[in-house]
From TrEMBL:
It catalyses: Endonucleolytic cleavage to 5'-phosphomononucleotide and 5'-phosphooligonucleotide end-products. The lineage of its organism: Eukaryota, Viridiplantae, Streptophyta, Embryophyta, Tracheophyta. Residues 1-19 form the signal peptide. Its EC number is 3.1.30.1. This is Aspergillus nuclease S1.
Length: 295
């Protein structure tokens, strides 16, 4: 990824300045990223957990989840990183790396799949010139982004950003934000006492019950021609198509849409967490997880 490499000097300077303070923006939204990374923390080996803690900025106080929104907070300071948060498609419910992984001006590899591959490779290579703290935070954040279906939505509406809708007749929002923030906040409010750890525990409970049979296959993905990240983007692109149904520009979304979206949101957060942990375990404990190697 030559383009990223060229920007490394800019990146390091900006990151050094930005890493000095905690992110302020609430931007998945902040909750989605927090939960994805919190779930990942629970699946890390002791060795990987220690390595992750060693790389975290001081302000994260040893908690990966606390730092997972950092790439959103510094997006304006690092405009080149903007296209690494998503991988939009023409709207055919499919993701194709060759066709879809590029920046807004066609820069090759500048999409969320390229970002995940790049920062995974950077962390795996101890001689890589990339800043390791920053590589960890980008990788952890992008694992969240790639699982949010509207981050692999249609290019024409910027992944739902230009589709303005109302949420329960009260909040003016857009379809991208509905998936980033509104569904999660409504769920927290209705079912989880506005408490993120209660929602994280509910998702963890599903992992050991409803999803327990499929969960051990989530991290299995390598094929001779694609990487894991290709598969995650393909899944999101497929999930984005039904997400557009019943959500036209100007519409009002409420229970019917919310109850259709919530199980998808919860499962994607769980998958993002489990897969992030598998990647970090592979990088930091040299553990070649059988689940990743198989199939
Ligand atoms: Zn993002």
């Amino acid at each position: 990824m030559g383009f990223l490499r060229l920007l490394q000097a800019v990146l390091l300077a900006a990151a050094a300045a930005a890493a000095a303070r905690a992110p302020a923006a609430r931007a998945w939204g902040e909750e989605g990223h927090y939960m994805t990374c919190k779930i990942a923390e629970g699946f890390l080996t002791g060795e990987a957990s220690a390595a992750v803690k060693g790389l975290l900025p001081e302000w994260a106080v040893g908690e990966l989840a606390a730092a997972c929104s950092w790439p959103d907070a510094v997006r304006r300071q690092m405009p080149w990183s903007g296209s690494l948060h998503f991988a939009d498609t023409p709207g055919d419910c499919k993701f194709s790396y060759a066709r879809d992984c590029h920046g807004t001006k066609g820069e090759k590899d500048m999409c969320v799949v390229g970002g995940i591959n790049n920062y995974t490779a950077a962390l795996q290579d101890s001689s890589s010139p990339y800043n390791r703290t920053e590589s960890l935070l980008f990788l952890s954040h992008f694992l969240g982004d790639i699982h949010q279906p509207m981050h692999c939505g249609r290019t024409a509406d910027l992944g739902g950003n230009t589709i303005v809708v109302t949420w329960y007749n009260t909040t003016k929002t857009n379809l991208h934000k509905v998936w980033n923030v509104n569904v999660i906040e409504t769920a927290m409010n209705r079912f989880y006492k506005d408490d993120m750890s209660t929602m994280v525990n509910a998702i963890k409970h599903n992992l050991t019950n409803e999803w327990c049979r499929e969960e051990n296959q989530w991290a299995a993905c390598y094929t001779p021609t694609t990487t894991c990240a290709d598969k995650y983007a393909e899944e999101s692109a497929e999930l984005s198509c039904p997400a557009y149904v019943g959500a036209d520009h100007g519409s009002n979304l409420e229970d019917e849409y919310f109850f259709k979206a919530l199980p998808v949101v919860q499962k994607r957060i769980a998958q993002g967490g489990v897969r992030l942990a598998a990647i970090l375990n592979r990088i930091f404990s040299g553990k070649n997880d059988d689940r990743i190697q198989s199939s």
